Amino acid sequence: MTRPLTLLLLLLVIAVSAPAYGQFHFAATLTGEQEVPGVDTEATATITARFDKGFTKAHVVLKVKNGVGITAAHFHCHRPGANGPIAFGLFAPGPLFFDGTTAEGDLTNADFNMADCVPQVGRPVNNIAALALAMRDGLIYANVHTTAHPGGEVRGQLLEVNRGPGKANRGKNDRDDEEEEEEED
């Protein structure tokens, strides 16, 4: 009797003490075509952002292919097709180290760039929780800047993944098929 109880308590301690990344998980593929205006480039990138359960930090992984003269990378606030201010810097400025192809690390509230996102997206994006919610609603894009294209060489809108069947990569104005069928009746 004590052995199953001990095992249960051990599992509970491990579950509580481990960081719960993946509660909110976002990803994007960055291309020159998504820049505004578009950029003709061979460079591409991928980025993921996983927020911890308490929204105290976001673990970010950026991987760049065929990038030349990379100078900075940031999370900007605006919808697809429009440019916006830097909400959180990844590097230059930002806390992540970029080794020429990869930047990986954690963002916290201290990394907020003091940008006013209200004119662009209708709400502040001034802490990690607000960043996660803005990403969920399709209001944040990642941008990699280079010496050839200081305004941005590749860009991609962050979209939610692991949201459940049929719900990945959806914004707040997207509707479920069930909702559409109910309205048609």
Class based on secondary structure composition and strand pairing = alpha+beta
Spatial order of strands in the largest sheet:
6-7-3-2-1-10
Describe the global form: globular
Spatial extent as radius of gyration: 19 Å
Keyword list:
single chain; 185 residues; 4 helices; 10 strands; globular; disordered C terminus
A few lines on this structure:
A 6-stranded antiparallel sheet has the order 6-7-3-2-1-10, with helices on one face. A 4-stranded antiparallel sheet has the order 5-4-8-9.
Describe this entry's structure for a reader.
There is one protein chain. The chain is of the alpha+beta class and 185 residues long. The longest helix is centred in the first third of the chain and has 16 residues.
Explain the layout of strands and helices.
Layout: H1 2-17, E1 24-30, E2 44-51, E3 58-65, E4 70-77, E5 86-91, E6 97-98, E7 102-107, H2 118-121, H3 128-136, E8 140-146, E9 154-157, E10 159-161, H4 177-184
